[in-house]
């Protein structure tokens, strides 16, 4: 039993079975885990997540190797880690079919509305998603102290709040959504019964968090369209059992000190490591939502219109692989590689490669690329927040201009310093690249100053503390802090 | 000069050059034209539309053959028809690239958000769209009487209201949108400058009409997101030049007498003309928005789950071809044909063909199919209104159950009698088919009664008169009728 329980699909550590039978580990990927890990390792809490790898399953089953490892588990600090094991097919259908392929693309407006359909097979996958949520809810119910608090993280666990509330009405429940939230029309593409179950599931919480006001407002509108009694002004929804659910936004920022420590771990950059001349840099997971292809198209359109920049500007596309087991992601990677080749073939010269595609899984080195950029491109189709935008402006050493998609949550925080673009508009991106490269030093410095201030305004520790405090207030029937 | 000018992309008559050099004509297709033609032919008005065919261009140019024809122009009644001719490439880019491929799919949530992008080429097409709108505005400005009224129809002419207002501030301007309208997030996929131009263009009108409240509310939300001063309660927007724009919905219904006269023109149905046993019927243009493929999937899922119905139920898919010059539509037709073959191959027997695909362009015969249906399926992905749903319940002679997409505007009018479904949910459609076929006669009769009342509540003549009266009120600085 502990005062605080945190549950997220992916945990802070990922375990791997080594050929010698031992267990290795690495940091769990993703912005949420990266933000939470440093905050939680100093707290006596329980962190529950899914066993995703074979190594995770060994640890989750409490096998001897795992016990051995748990004595030397690095960097969990005071947080106790618990890994839930699932029947493999159940977990895969929940994670791949429902979470990744449906909910993720739904909230990013990337469903293929011409071909997708919800059939019996999808409903069977949804039953798996329900099962995974039930297991999480049961584990949280077992781990939470009397009148304790449980934080359920993201769209993988949208049904768990109501399941947990039924088991443990005494605990305070927060659910935080880290992706965007679509408006009622697009959200309504989901089958009515399943959409209803999703909303009712989330409304089992006392407090629902989103990364920006925009996603919170869309969620309120979805609840209103579904017939709930919604007070949009106050951000309060009356759940079916009558309890009040408060909806708030918590715009996650960056811990500047920690980021600098991390950046210093990178080796000194070699000259021209990321390309020659002035550098246009992007750093992303290889992900359709990140919009790398249209970024390349925009860069090609810029080169087309500005022949004088040939040989003078290089675009460094730094990516790490994401969900490589999904066919969509394999195809996306192949398309990106193909487009890079096309551009280099079309515009390149013996002494100049216009685009450098750098696939790596090395955060410090990615930070080095951000540091030496003259222009940063962060143009996701949609994005819950996008921490790369905030990290980049903090580590950059050249007063880089940040070209930022207005559909990223980060745009709400960084709009005073960033150059906002529509991520579907490659002509606009081409113009923005030209404008950014021509921007006078004084304006770049002034914008960078504003960007740095905004990027650090809500570092993870404070961000988490505010959520906690709001949950405590809500449980005492008070409103969250305005 | 005439008191009323109506402008629509497609006119009430379509002309064709005959091999002998003469001109033939046929009725213009589409729900809007079908509704307007009987209303306008009794009025001394000018109807301006685009010359779309070679025959149209001859008529539009006022060539001798056309003059000859105009003396015997059938069924225009008192309405004077004027066809505008455009440079072919300009019109095609405006019509295909902007209107059909972009605005139409945008408002129906059918953009391919993974691949579409707005580049310089698209902006060149937009310039063509602007040019076509300018020509329409100029023609309307020339045709309208002092203090007359101009009705501009649909998304093809979204920029024309502001252009017309600048030329003729004395005339009253109504613009009516006949497709759905997407919410601000999805609408925001359009480039910012072009979306801004579109809204500002429409806001040149005094009165903006939509086919249901839902689309009107989405439009108001889009204007609010774009920074306009919007009174959502009253449906009023303050345009940039300060004038008030009223936003109203006009839910078009069916003229029952005219429909019956038309239905009587169909030949007596031969036994089993549309299939054997009980009949599930749909009648649609061959159009991705009409969702024929998911309709077929739902029927297949129904057959899968109800083997006892094999041989007892047939699905008649009655379609006429639409935009056959567009590759998307050719592919869609091929997919539909392929899916029909698959289902017939999978479930068919020597004595029973489960699906009959009937491609025709014969409204009376389509009405006959609706008349003998036991179940009517109208499941568009999205739809401004869908008059087939309303026509079908009026001509049907078997108290058919209407299974209707909740994303059709018609769902707002017919919800008390229809069986509403989510158009993406093929499992739900399969269940609805089973439920509809099992529905007791008493309930079917009661639902049919409610459907017939709702379908005729706003026939075209009254629908048009209300719009006219509202425009007159708005011009006298009064509010439209509540």
Descriptive notes:
- The structure is a homodimer of 482-residue chains.
- Chain A has 482 residues and is of the alpha/beta class.
- In chain A, 45% of the residues lie in helices and 19% in strands.
- Chain A contains 18 helices and 17 strands.
- The longest helix of chain A has 24 residues.
- The radius of gyration of chain A is 23 Å and the shape is globular.
- The relative contact order of chain A is 0.10.
- About 1% of the residues of chain A have low confidence.
- Chains A and B meet through helix 5, helix 7, helix 11 and helix 16 of A and helix 5, helix 7, helix 11 and helix 16 of B.
Helix and strand topology:
The structure is a homodimer of 482-residue chains.
Chain A: E1 2-8, E2 13-17, E3 23-27, H1 31-40, E4 45-50, H2 54-60, H3 64-71, E5 80-84, H4 88-107, H5 120-143, E6 144-153, H6 160-167, E7 172-176, H7 184-187, H8 192-202, E8 207-210, H9 213-225, E9 229-231, E10 236-238, E11 244-249, H10 256-264, E12 278-285, H11 292-305, E13 313-320, H12 327-347, E14 355-359, H13 363-371, E15 375-378, H14 387-395, E16 401-405, H15 410-414, E17 419-421, H16 426-437, H17 441-455, H18 460-475
Parallel strand pairs in A: 1-4, 1-6, 4-5, 6-7, 7-8, 8-11, 12-13, 12-15, 13-14, 15-16, 16-17
Antiparallel strand pairs in A: 2-3, 9-10, 10-11
């Amino acid at each position: 039993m502990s005062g605080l329980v945190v549950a997220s699909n992916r945990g802070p550590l990922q375990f791997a079975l080594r050929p010698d039978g031992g267990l290795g580990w690495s940091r769990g990927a993703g912005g949420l885990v990266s933000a939470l890990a440093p905050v939680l390792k100093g707290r006596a809490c329980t962190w529950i997540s899914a066993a995703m790898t074979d190594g995770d399953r060994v640890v989750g089953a409490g096998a001897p190797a795992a016990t051995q490892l748990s004595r030397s588990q690095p960097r969990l600090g005071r947080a106790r880690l618990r890994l839930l094991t699932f029947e493999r097919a159940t977990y895969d259908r929940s994670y791949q079919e429902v979470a990744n392929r449906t909910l993720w693309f739904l909230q990013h407006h990337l469903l293929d509305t011409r071909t997708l359909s919800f059939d019996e097979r999808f409903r069977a996958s949804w039953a798996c998603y329900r099962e995974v949520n039930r297991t999480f809810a049961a584990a949280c119910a077992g781990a939470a102290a009397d009148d304790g608090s449980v934080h359920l993280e993201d769209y993988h666990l949208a049904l768990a709040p109501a399941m947990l509330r039924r088991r443990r009405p005494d605990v305070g429940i927060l659910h935080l959504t880290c992706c965007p939230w679509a408006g009622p029309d697009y959200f309504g593409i989901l089958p009515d019964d399943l959409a209803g179950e999703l909303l009712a599931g989330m409304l089992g919480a006392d407090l629902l968090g989103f990364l920006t006001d925009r996603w919170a407002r869309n969620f309120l509108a979805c609840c209103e369209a579904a017939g709930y009694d919604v007070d949009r002004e106050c951000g309060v929804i009356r759940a079916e059992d009558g309890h009040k659910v408060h909806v708030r936004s918590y715009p996650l920022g960056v811990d500047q000190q920690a980021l600098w420590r991390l950046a210093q771990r990178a080796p000194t950059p070699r000259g021209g490591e990321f390309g020659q001349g002035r550098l246009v840099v992007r750093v992303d997971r290889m992900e359709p939502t990140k919009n790398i292809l249209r970024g390349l198209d925009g860069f090609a359109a810029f080169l087309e219109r500005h022949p004088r920049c040939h040989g003078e500007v290089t675009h460094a596309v730094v990516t790490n692989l994401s969900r490589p087991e999904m066919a969509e992601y394999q195809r996306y990677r192949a398309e990106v590689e193909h487009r890079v080749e096309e551009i280099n073939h079309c515009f390149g010269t013996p002494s100049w490669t216009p685009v450098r595609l750098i696939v790596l899984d090395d955060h410090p080195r990615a930070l080095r690329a951000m540091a030496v950029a003259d222009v940063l491109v962060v143009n996701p189709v949609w994005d819950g927040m996008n921490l790369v935008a905030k990290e980049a402006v903090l580590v950059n050493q050249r007063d880089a201009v940040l070209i930022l998609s207005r559909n990223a949550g980060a745009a709400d925080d960084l709009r005073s310093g960033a150059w906002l673009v529509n991520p579907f508009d490659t002509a606009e991106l081409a113009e923005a690249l030209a404008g950014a490269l021509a921007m006078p030093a004084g304006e770049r410095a002034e914008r960078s100053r504003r960007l740095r201030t905004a990027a650090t305004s809500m570092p993870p520790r404070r961000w988490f503390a505010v959520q906690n405090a709001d949950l405590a207030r809500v449980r005492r029937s008070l409103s969250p802090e305005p």
